[in-house]
Amino acid sequence: MSIVQIVTIIGSIPLFSLRTFLPAFLTALLLTYPEYFPGLEGVPAVSEEAFISRNWVLIVLGSLSLLEIIGDKNTDVRNLLKNAETYLKPIAFLAINLSLLDETSVEVLQEVQWAAFDPLWVVLAFGALMVHWLATLRRDFLDFLEDIDEDDNLFIGRITSWIEDSLVVFGFLLLIWTGIIMVILYATAIAFFVFIRKRYDKKLEEQKLKCFNCGEKNLPFAVKCVNCKKLQPQIYAIGIFGQKKEELIVNVEKHQLNLLSHRKCADCGNKLDSNRLFQNCHFCGNAHFQSPTVKEFIKNQDKKFYKIAGLSFLLGFVPVVGFLTSAVIANIHLFSPYRRYIPKGSSFLTKVFIKILTFLFFVVGIALGFIAAPVYIVLRYYIWKKKFQSRAGKSANFLSSAEKTTT
Ligand SMILES: [Zn+2]
Ligand SMILES: [Zn+2]
């Protein structure tokens, strides 16, 4: 067991915690064609019989890496793989490091008899656990980012994905040039992320307000106390990213509609995990969409829709920027409130249709934004509203018929 081996194993931990296949592919590529890597021109390649340098292994790993890079840019694919990845990554880490062990040091290891025990196994087992732990940490951090920008309106998800891809490539090069520096850099970065996360949780806790009646701590935008259900005297407005705004609300009903559009409990303000319309809040037990109702919610969305469609016509006269601005505004204020109640990836065809539509309108929007922007908003709004209504209709049919009999 050499120092270089240990540094390589430890250094590849952060790479595998970010991506499953890309680091594996880069390693295989390096071992087969070291001459193409800057600074490693003189390094001999592994023998052609080595498993990792076989053509089909390279092709499979390369294709999987490419799929991984593309798939990670899609919110649905990312969500689908999110939990499985925390186990796939340590497996990929072990597979690659074991095959390396096999190719490079098997002879050395055979000579050094550690009484059937090799300390390298300890390092590898530790490494796999670290990869799992870091991959979980990464998943939680991405969840936290998703909370801010759930539908990737601001492209936060896509930007972090590109950053991660480049980190893997950069980290890999750094690892083969100066392994130790890479290990130190990543340790610092991880410590920083843990710190940010802790601070965010602390800030949320600090923002909570004590109930005037029972003393229970409530979210700053809670309408009623989570414990005693008393109406709170001080209710803060909620921002477009679900954050606390520094202004108090005046209209309770409008504020509650706002909470609903963030898929938060209209009473206690806590986030609801499920995207079902009719459910009870886990924190205060309030029945979701009972007050305000689905009808009031849609009416409120419609009102915003007329305003934003009108605004998009005016904005459309500014080339490119006008169209983009109105698309972002519509996403945040019109589509997301509906989308939050519709299961992700529920209809692939609608998604493809919307992607094509967006692209077409983007092209037309460059010159004729004042037409493209409103038409784009009308069509997409109509699609999301219909989906939301059909989702509401399925479970609300009996509710509305019950309503009719009582009125
Ligand atoms: Zn209370
Ligand atoms: Zn609640």
From TrEMBL:
The keyword Transmembrane helix applies. The chain crosses the membrane at residues 7-31, 51-70, 114-135, 167-196, 308-332, 352-379. Keywords: Membrane, Transmembrane, Transmembrane helix. This is DUF4126 domain-containing protein. It comes from the Bacteria.
